[in-house]
Structure formats: structure tokens, C-alpha cells
Design a protein that fits this description.
- By secondary structure, the protein is an alpha/beta fold.
- It has 2 domains: 8-130, Cobalt-precorrin-4 Transmethylase, domain 1, CATH 3.40.1010.10; 135-235, 2-Layer Sandwich (Methyltransferase, Cobalt-precorrin-4 Transmethylase, Domain 2).
- The protein contains 7 helices and 10 strands.
- A hairpin with a 7-residue loop joins strand 8 (201-205) and strand 9.
- It binds S-adenosylmethionine.
- S-adenosylmethionine (SAM) binds at residues 15-16, 102-104, 107-109, 134-135, 179-180, 204-207, 228-231.
Amino acid sequence: MSDPLGQLWGIGVGPGDPELITVKALNCLRRCPVVAFPAGRNGRPGMAQTIVTPWLNPDQVQVPLWFPYVQDASTLETAWQGAATQIGSYLRQGQDVVFATEGDASFYSTFTYLAQAVQQQQPQVQVHTIPGVCSPLAAAAALGQPLTVQHQRLTILPAMYTLDTLETALDQAEVVVLMKVAAVYPQVWAILQRRELLAQSRVVTHISGHDQVIYDNLDNHPQLSLPYFSLLIVHCGQNHPLG
Ligand SMILES: C[S@@+](CC[C@H](N)C(=O)[O-])C[C@H]1O[C@@H](n2cnc3c(N)ncnc32)[C@H](O)[C@@H]1O
């Protein structure tokens, strides 16, 4: 009989503050001999790596995995398959691998694609997910405001929303969260200005980190040079909690 395969664990490690990792994720992180995470850029560690580093011990193998920031499907697929092959060698040796992902592991996370690729390559591998604190919820806490109350509808738009999609969301939901807003901020600002929603909109960057910034008077900020880790929350309802 062949040796048992290692198991793959995807853990959400929260938005930045190392104390916002769950006890369950932390136990998993400490237990697994192999710790993988998205590789950083420009010689700097990535967000998930920065969050987990204080919790690691020197015996654990650290495996940075490279994922490109592109839309091209075949480039992405090649990267996911390559990453799956890298951690697959440890799984084949019976070693458990934990993949640390920023925020939550099921919310716009690379872990979804990595796990799919691993299961394509080794269908017998067991995959587990441990949830984490995702950025919209951490942003609400940072703002000291509930994200939603009572009957408010919440719409979360990912990176590639068209401006039409944004208009529809603002028509239909009382609370709208824009992920990856950095790339489209000036266009979003123009729409919010036309709809007179700037006073009810806030941008939070590097939520819960020591470098967190809150922009809460967007009237004064038609242009902002925002980092990748930025999101915008609009409370559009009449009875919004910021009103
Ligand atoms: C690929 S998504 C990852 C979402 C993540 N899995 C989560 O649970 O929040 C990346 C986007 O999430 C948002 N984001 C994630 N973490 C953030 C943080 N600490 N501060 C601000 N925005 C964050 C930003 O909009 C960023 O462009």
C-alpha cells in the first residue's frame, strides 16, 4: 500500500493585523510542516506572508508561490498549475501543506484556483478550508459602523465591474462595497459625485494594519493614489448609519 497523501489546508489569515487570525487557523498554521503563501512583489513579502511570519517556527518549510496580476486566462492557469505542482511534491511525500491567504479563503481568493489545480493533478488529496475575517467586515469595524442593518441589501462588486454595473448596484442596494477600487477610483468618484453620494462613501486602505488610512470626506478627493489593498463602501440608503 502506498503512503497516505498529505492534506491541503487553505486558511484565511485576516486583513492585516496578526491578531485577526482565528484560533483554528493559527493551530493549523503551527501544525503543518509546509507553509505556502503568495510570493511578494519587488523584493517585499506579500500580505499573507507578513501576517503569518510572526507565528512560524524555523522547522517549517516556507513555499512562496508566484501568481501574476493579469487577466489572461492561460497565463493564470499556467501559474495555478505550476503552484499546484510545487506543493504537490510535498503532498505526495505525505506532508500536510497550509496555504495562507489574506482575508478569507473563499472570498475572491487565490486559494480557490490553487485547490482546483491540486485536485486536478491529485484527485485523492483532501482539501480543507478554514475561514477568516474578510476585508469588508474588517473595514466596517475600522470605520466603527455596521456594514448593514435591518433590511439593507448589500452588493459587493469585484475588480472588473463596469460603470454600468456600479450604477445598477447603487440603484438596487443600500450598501455597496467596491473591491480593488484603486484602479478605477476617478471614474467611481465621478459617479458618486453625480449621485451626491460622496458624503456617504468612505475608502479604507490597509485595513487593520499599522498603515491603515481612512478617507471619509471624498468631496475633497477626486483623485487619490490608492494602494492595491483599498476598498470603498457606499451607504446609499436614506437611513444609512452614516447619515
Ligand atoms: C483578491 S481580493 C482578496 C479579498 C480577500 N480574500 C478578503 O477576504 O478580503 C483583493 C482586494 O480585497 C480588498 N482588500 C483585501 N484586504 C484588504 C485590506 N487589508 N485593506 C483594504 N482592502 C483590502 C482590496 O479591495 C483588494 O484589492
